[in-house]
Automatic annotation (TrEMBL):
Pfam family, one: HD
This protein's name: HD domain-containing protein
Segments forming domain HD: 259-343
Native organism taxonomy: Bacteria, Pseudomonadati, Bacteroidota, Flavobacteriia, Flavobacteriales
GO molecular function: ATP binding; metal ion binding; nucleotidyltransferase activity; RNA binding
Domain Poly A polymerase head, residue spans: 26-155
Species of the source: Moheibacter lacus
Length: 477
């Protein structure tokens, strides 16, 4: 293990020299060290801890580099950072922390390197490399973080109850690291998360979502999502998802466990998209099934209108979790609402009108919708799975043909409201909207072609039925 390679960049020598001039012990710590030892792509951000003022060290280093970005100083937190050659460099003084029971904001005082390592969340993040002249490049590992890296274990430096109760966000981080790195959470540590799960409520929704999003973007999201559920955290974050868990039986008839089905769908979609909001749509596509679940003696279990109910639930969920309420919300709502529509078009006798209407409703998100529908095939029966995928391929081909011919994706009626008013000499009124909508419906139903000439002709016919008289132009006199 050649740690000299980890600190081969010229910035480490500059920091070492600056620390010597200030008479401050200095170390590189945390994720950079961990990722180097794991042979992962090292982060483009590096944390430095100094026994003394982190701000003074940052200022000294910054003064020696002529082409660095502006130095940002945060006196309240005793930190400073700047960027150089694409690397974010963060400096902080070694700290000792203590916490009040109802807050994750610590009382901070100056401390030693050992104090600083003790306050770290996990042993694998408490590793430090010395930048001091007398032991430059030496690994400082008081909690056997190296051993935990080899054993692939997530473990806390202190008693886990202290670590997690002090800062409950660390429970989310434990699960995120386990999911990202393919590690296991040490047994005592996991039991402590289960015991302290309710304390996640004192953490801001924004911070919780930041960790949750990282779990959602892992290679296999179900690993972290299942850990969140097993730990008891999911019920405080997404109770709507937890409500899908379990199988009921009535008169010998059961339904699938929609919670585990959902995790499969998210895993299925993950290799096909880096779009976090499409992954969210996969996670939430069935949330309307819990409130709509009914048992009918004639047909068994039903979930009528679960897509509509689910799309309405998405708004409240996004608002509660402080997720963006603009385009991401609208996108997830749309995909959830339409999530079952393509399945209904698998029938051989599906009409072009039904295909046109789906294309129009899905618009630019049609391809994402189809990606979700394919991910929604979770049957373990290979024959059924093959048949479902072949059926979807047929639907895609039919839709491609309709789209090429009719150009209805994201289309606007060829005749505008302004032209309707000008033609009939009328002011804004319900008839304008009625005519415009009727033209759109006629195109979608295949009654007229999607072009200006056909739309104008159809508009004039509608005008007659509504007793509207076209205005004469001068050229017509």
């Amino acid at each position: 293990m050649n740690l000299q390679e980890a600190i081969s960049h010229k910035v480490f020598k500059i920091i070492s020299q600056s620390a010597k001039e200030l008479g401050q012990e200095t170390y590189v710590v945390g994720g950079f060290v961990r990722d180097f030892l794991l042979k992962r792509d090292s982060k483009k951000d590096i944390d430095f801890v100094t026994v003394g003022s982190g701000i003074e060290l940052a200022e000294k280093v910054h003064s020696k580099i002529t082409d660095a970005s502006k130095l940002s100083v945060f006196k309240r937190f005793g930190t400073a950072n700047f960027k150089w050659e694409g690397i974010d460099l963060e400096f902080v003084g070694a700290r000792r922390e203590s916490y009040a029971e109802d807050s994750r904001k610590p009382f901070v005082e100056d401390g030693s390197l050992e104090d600083d390592q003790k306050r770290r969340d996990f042993t694998i993040n408490a590793l430090a490399i010395s930048l001091n002249e007398e032991n430059y490049g030496e690994l400082i590992d008081p909690f056997d973080g190296i051993g935990d890296l080899e054993r692939k274990i997530i473990r806390t430096p202190l008693e886990p109850d202290v670590t997690y109760s002090d800062d409950p966000l660390r429970m989310m981080r434990a699960i995120r690291f386990a999911a990202q790195l393919g590690f296991e959470i040490e047994e005592n540590s996991f039991q402590s998360i289960q015991k302290n799960a309710s304390r996640i409520d004192i953490v801001s929704k924004e911070r919780v979502m930041d960790e949750f999003q990282k779990i959602m973007m892992t290679e296999k999201p179900s690993t972290g999502l299942k850990l969140l559920d097993d730990a008891g955290l999911m019920q405080f974050i997404l109770p709507e998802l937890v409500a899908l868990r379990g199988v009921e039986e009535v008169e010998g008839q059961t339904h699938k466990d929609n919670f585990y089905h959902t995790l499969e769908v998210v895993d299925n979609i993950a290799p096909n998209t880096e779009n976090i909001w499409l992954r969210w749509a996969a996670l939430l596509h069935d949330i309307g099934k819990a409130p709509t679940k009914r048992y009918d003696k004639k047909i068994g279990w039903t979930f009528h209108s679960h897509e509509f109910v689910g799309s309405k639930m998405v708004f409240k969920l996004f608002k509660r979790l402080k997720l963006p309420l603009g385009h991401p919300l609208k996108f997830v709502q749309k995909i959830v609402l339409l999530s079952s529509r393509p399945i209904a078009l698998v029938d051989e006798n599906v009409t072009d009108a039904a295909l046109r209407r789906l294309l129009f409703d899905a618009g630019e998100d049609f391809d994402d919708l189809i990606t979700l529908c394919k991910a929604d095939i979770t049957t373990k029966n290979e024959r059924k799975q093959r048949r479902f995928k072949q059926n979807f391929s047929l639907v895609e081909q039919k839709i491609k043909e309709v789209e090429e011919r009719d150009k209805v994706r994201n289309f606007q009626p060829p005749v505008s409201g302004e032209e309707i008013m000008e033609t009939f000499g009328i002011q804004p009124c319900k008839e304008v909207g009625l005519i415009k909508n009727s033209i759109k419906e006629a195109i979608l139903e295949g009654e007229i072609e999607n072009n200006y000439e056909s739309a104008i002709k159809y508009m004039m016919e509608l005008g007659k039925k509504l007793y509207l008289t076209p205005k004469l132009k001068n050229s017509d006199l």
